Hints:
Structural class: alpha+beta
CATH class of the largest domain: Alpha Beta
Distance between the termini: 29 Å
CATH superfamily of the largest domain: FAD-linked oxidases, C-terminal domain
CATH architecture of the largest domain: 3-Layer(aba) Sandwich
Largest sheet: 9 strands, antiparallel
Number of strands: 20
Bound molecules: flavin-adenine dinucleotide
Radius of gyration: 23 Å
Strand content: 15-25%
Number of domains: 4
Amino acid sequence: xxxxxxxxxxxxxxxxxxxxxxxxxxxxxxxxxxxxxxxxxxxxxxxxxxxxxxxxxxxxxxxxxxxxxxxxxxxxxxxxxxxxxxxxxxxxxxxxxxxxxxxxxxxxxxxxxxxxxxxxxxxxxxxxxxxxxxxxxxxxxxxxxxxxxxxxxxxxxxxxxxxxxxxxxxxxxxxxxxxxxxxxxxxxxxxxxxxxxxxxxxxxxxxxxxxxxxxxxxxxxxxxxxxxxxxxxxxxxxxxxxxxxxxxxxxxxxxxxxxxxxxxxxxxxxxxxxxxxxxxxxxxxxxxxxxxxxxxxxxxxxxxxxxxxxxxxxxxxxxxxxxxxxxxxxxxxxxxxxxxxxxxxxxxxxxxxxxxxxxxxxxxxxxxxxxxxxxxxxxxxxxxxxxxxxxxxxxxxxxxxxxxxxxxxxxxxxxxxxxxxxxxxxxxxxxxxxxxxxxxxxxxxxxxxxxxxxxxxxxxxxxxxxxxxxxxxxxxxxxxxxxxxxxxxxxxxxxxxxxxxxxxxxxxxxxxxxxxxxxxxxxxxxxxxxxxxxxxxxxxxxxxxx
Length: 546
Ligand code: FAD
């Protein structure tokens, strides 16, 4: 639904007068062309995932006016990005780069500092610069979505050879998702680990290429990420040290067949034993992909019906017995945990791995292997199957409809793949959800030696009370987790300071190093101030943290 918001004037960056802002905009129009600069002086409209706004967080957890841009600029080339950065330094206007701005659950397209100028790279910089069927690599610009890359591979007749790893929703940018260290669900699910080579515009306007890209005339940029000397790519992910204008990505060879499977487990307390079983299988690559272990409440919610279809009260948690009764009516049947996995390779290779998984999982009493062959075409299982075989999808959006004006925000801690850790994180999140009266949607995404617990809080963004409860619940979970030694892998704009503060070993030594880097690379503090808790000198200690 499109919800017009209250709004009168552009949200000016703090410390910039209306006259100075107008002069800066006039300068920017001259530099880039008036048609590539938009001042945000209209009512904000929220849209939906595929038609999302680039001016604000359409799933806002705070006041509507908090994470809002003053203007949006559309560079068409790396040189244009350099021009915008130099302009920002001259006028001391904060800028915030997005690739496509579909970072929903983590802030969408919004800048951390109200009134920043959003640099929307994706609208005009959308070239696929290379797809190599020899090296299984590609080179893309920020506006290339997972859908676009997948389609280009099909269009070039390479679909039988090359797979793209995709997140649950395929509309995002390959670069945007990867620099925020997003995840997908084939064996190439750790996107940052599978990227190779960056081109970056620094906050003062110089351009660098990392790894082999620094060697003129090289043909190895996408094949060997490190080059020579310090490996600098890391400082350009989850940071505000540069604007990525090109990125290389490795592509997965078609493994010669795949087969998705679904197991269910009945009891909540099966979690710890199941995770213990999963770990050795995952590390040995018998369980090959970033699979998902999902909770029954989300299994019901992803069917797309609002919770009001099952339970009339607007407040409080939907009772467990009701959720289980609804799950029992679905093709998957009643369960507490559902494990969606995929195995790869020719049939005889798959059979060996599937037998090993089956024997291991059946050690848990009540474990069921679900016969998915007769599942209807729009059953969620098939969406997992598509995603695990590199085909972009949108089915996952359906649980956002759980409440009216459904928005979501995630609690995303990481831990080793251990039963004890899974149980501890599950217990703390469940307790806080119950306290705040919020339905509980936990899912474990199991990487190679760690797992991301993704707990999505779905809330009605028009309700101040629901937003406050969601935020309070999140803040409590972040603190509880940190007290037990767990940290988030990624977070929403509103929680970046808090999460960064939990990484405090040795008197905050890591953040102190980030601040040294920030001040050296961005002396005027114009690039995405506050992103991931990193504030430039001009902002530090002046009350910006939240
Ligand atoms: P953007 O919004 O463009 O970028 C993300 C952030 O990275 C930006 O805010 C910016 O700070 C920074 N950035 C972007 N581009 C650049 C650049 N060129 N230079 C410097 N900094 C930059 N995410 C997952 O990872 N996996 C999932 O499975 C997943 N499932 C989801 C399911 C649902 C229902 C929803 C609603 C969201 C899900 N997401 C998931 C979150 C999100 O939709 C994706 O991560 C999405 O790819 C991020 O949006 P984007 O690609 O448009 O990135």
